[in-house]
Amino acid sequence: ESSAMFAVCPLLGFGRFMLNGFKTSCCFDYVSQTLNVRTFIVFMYLMGFVVPLGICIFCYVNIYDSLRRRTLVMFIRQIRGKGGSFEKSMKESMIDSVDMTQNDASPTHSRLQDSNAPRTRREGSSSLAIRRLQKREVKIAKMSAVVIGMFLLAWTPYAVVALIGQFLGPHLINPYM
């Protein structure tokens, strides 16, 4: 939808097409410095780069935040279910998080596991659920960083070249860019 809008705009007089540097295909004119072309390039930069990037960041931050809040709610429910103090539960949670990051074969992992008092089935399952949510948080954070990083890797060069051509001068653009 939006790509069709950007492709049709030059046909309707907003912006224009030109042959690329090797004159083998056509692309948007990002070197002519007329008001019409400059306005079109800024419009494309905002609507095709800044706004989608902002939407991606906003969505991934909200997804991560909602999962983080869910983990916190489960942790608080676990504290209330045990009838223990917040400080004691925080210490146990720290041991659990260290436990979660250790490899199963490591001596530290076995020592931490053995030093914990036996848990009831309910306490163990809620701790396990919290650990799973924490692992999901990390996975979602990594996935979000990869998606946003790939978006930036794919679109930043074009955005930078178009802005250089418009605002710093077309003499800085060569066919190899």
Succession of helices and strands: HEEHHHH
Spatially, the strands of the biggest sheet line up as 1-2
Number of β-strand runs = 2
Helix content: over 70%
Question: Which spans of ≥5 residues are poorly predicted at pLDDT below 50?
Answer: 97-122
Radius of gyration: 27 Å
Bulk shape: elongated
Largest sheet: 2 strands, antiparallel
Number of helices: 5
N- and C-termini, Cα separation: 28 Å
Average of per-residue pLDDT values? 78
Structural class: mainly alpha
Strand content: under 5%
Folded structure, characterized:
- Helix 2 (35-82) runs antiparallel to helix 5 (121-167) and helix 3 packs antiparallel against helix 4 (107-115).
- Strands 1-2 form a two-stranded antiparallel sheet.
- Strand 1 and strand 2 form a beta hairpin.
- With 177 residues, the chain is mainly alpha-helical.
- Residues 97-122 have low confidence and may be disordered.
- Helix content is 72%, strand content 3%.
- It has five helices and two strands, in the order H-E-E-H-H-H-H.
Task: Describe the secondary structure blueprint for this structure.
Blueprint: H1 2-8, E1 17-19, E2 26-28, H2 35-82, H3 86-101, H4 107-115, H5 121-167
Antiparallel strand pairs: 1-2
Helix pairs in contact: 2-5, 3-4
What key attributes describe this structure?
2 strands, single chain, 5 helices, mainly alpha, 177 residues, two-stranded antiparallel ribbon
Condensed summary:
With 177 residues, the protein is mainly alpha-helical. The protein is 72% helix and 3% strand. It is built from five helices and two strands.
